[in-house]
């Protein structure tokens, strides 16, 4: 099946809102903390110019209850099996209908010619879904999504016969960067030597008489750009439910530094020290040789990628305030220290690891990062959508 035709309408999506101080919100899903009422600048204090964010984040996404969590993935490599069975890490696989829980519809959901032309969820406009202007205008997420559908239908109609789905990485002339890799059959997961294969099954098809297109997603939880939860490398955390739904959105969203690291070695304590990342910086995305080598888009999983050595992870933990660690390959830890470096990071459950970021063509510097994992109950990893806003 042609991939663009397979890419159906939907994917679970996380939605965060930034209500004003008067707004009521669902208490248990709100993240108070560092975003104070008076806050008009970021926690790096850039003079209030860059990050005029409101005081709290409210998660309006439904949690996804797990049914068939498949943890016993067969593999020749030890770390790919489950901890309980003697493996060094837990690795789940997700299988969910695309329109499960909180989700978004793409035009191809109910228009077969859009479906055939490839108007899938990857073509949705992040400017519409995220831009701060939407907040300033105090529009509800519902209204924004409605406008999204309307704008697509009308703009596509005006295009006449030429239906070209937009595939965009940069929005608003460089204000929004999508730093997420597209998911396709070639996407690497670290579970398989090669890509994940056909991850979408068209369960209901308009071509076969259905009123709409409807796909089912099946992919390893650590595919492409994704997040690790503490249960990935700690069986007790896994059992106690420290899954991706328990990750702190305050850590995953906020001011972040994108830095280049030396290209000739793994990230050791010495390298960490040389980066001179000041105290107070909570989120750092590390761009490495992996980006230069375009490892995320290679056909096979490459164990020669670079990442944190155990001493580098320990140094970061002991000497910085970094709570969000982003990296440009499938594992934040170098292959030789795969388990030990992960365990250093995940032990306190304060540091969140985002892996497989797409960091090419973005300048180093200060941004606002927005990373939203799916609310998959019981999952120790999840695909994640990450964007940078300048
Ligand atoms: Zn992972
Ligand atoms: Zn990892």
TrEMBL record:
GO terms for biological process: L-tryptophan catabolic process to kynurenine. InterPro entries: KFase/CYL, KFase_sf. It comes from Lactuca sativa. PANTHER family: ARYLFORMAMIDASE, CYCLASE-LIKE PROTEIN 2. Belongs to the Cyclase 1 superfamily. Keywords: Extracellular matrix, Secreted, Signal. This is Cyclase. Coiled coil: none annotated. GO terms for molecular function: arylformamidase activity. It comes from the Eukaryota. Residues 1-23 form the signal peptide. It is found in: Secreted, Extracellular space, Extracellular matrix.
């Amino acid at each position: 099946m042609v991939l663009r035709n397979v890419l159906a309408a939907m994917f679970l999506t996380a939605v965060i809102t930034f209500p004003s101080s008067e707004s009521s919100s669902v208490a248990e899903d709100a993240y108070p903390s560092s975003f104070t009422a008076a806050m008009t600048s970021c926690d790096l204090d850039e003079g209030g110019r860059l990050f005029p964010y409101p005081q709290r984040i409210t998660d309006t996404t439904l949690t996804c209850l797990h049914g068939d969590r498949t943890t016993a993935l067969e593999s020749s490599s030890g770390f790919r099996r489950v901890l309980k069975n003697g493996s060094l890490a837990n690795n789940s696989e997700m299988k969910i209908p695309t329109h499960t829980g909180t989700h978004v519809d793409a035009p191809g959901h109910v228009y077969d010619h859009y479906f055939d032309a490839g108007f899938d969820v990857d073509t949705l406009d992040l400017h519409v879904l995220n831009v701060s202007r939407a907040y300033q205008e105090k529009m509800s997420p519902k209204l924004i999504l409605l406008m999204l559908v309307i704008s697509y239908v009308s703009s596509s109609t005006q295009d006449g016969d030429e239906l070209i789905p937009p595939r965009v990485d940069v929005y608003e002339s460089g204000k929004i960067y999508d730093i997420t890799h597209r998911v396709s059959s070639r996407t690497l997961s670290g579970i398989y030597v090669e890509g994940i294969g056909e991850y979408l099954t068209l369960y209901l098809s308009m071509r076969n008489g259905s009123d709409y297109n409807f796909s089912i997603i099946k992919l390893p939880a650590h595919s492409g750009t994704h997040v690790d939860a503490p249960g990935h490398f700690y069986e007790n955390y896994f059992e106690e439910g420290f899954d991706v739904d328990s990750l702190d959105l305050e850590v995953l969203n906020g001011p972040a530094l994108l830095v280049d690291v030396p290209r000739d070695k793994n990230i050791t304590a010495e390298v960490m020290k040389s980066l001179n990342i000041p105290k107070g910086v909570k989120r750092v995305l590390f761009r490495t040789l992996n980006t230069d080598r375009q490892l995320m888009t290679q056909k096979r999983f490459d164990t020669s990628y670079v990442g944190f050595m155990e001493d580098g992870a320990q140094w970061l933990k002991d000497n910085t305030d970094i709570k969000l660690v982003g990296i440009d390959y499938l594992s934040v830890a170098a292959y030789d220290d795969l388990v030990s470096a992960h365990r250093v990071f995940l032990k306190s459950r304060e540091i969140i690891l985002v892996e497989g970021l797409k960091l090419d063509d973005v300048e180093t510097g200060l941004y606002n990062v927005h990373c939203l994992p799916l609310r998959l109950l019981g999952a120790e990893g999840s695909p994640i959508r990450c964007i940078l806003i300048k």
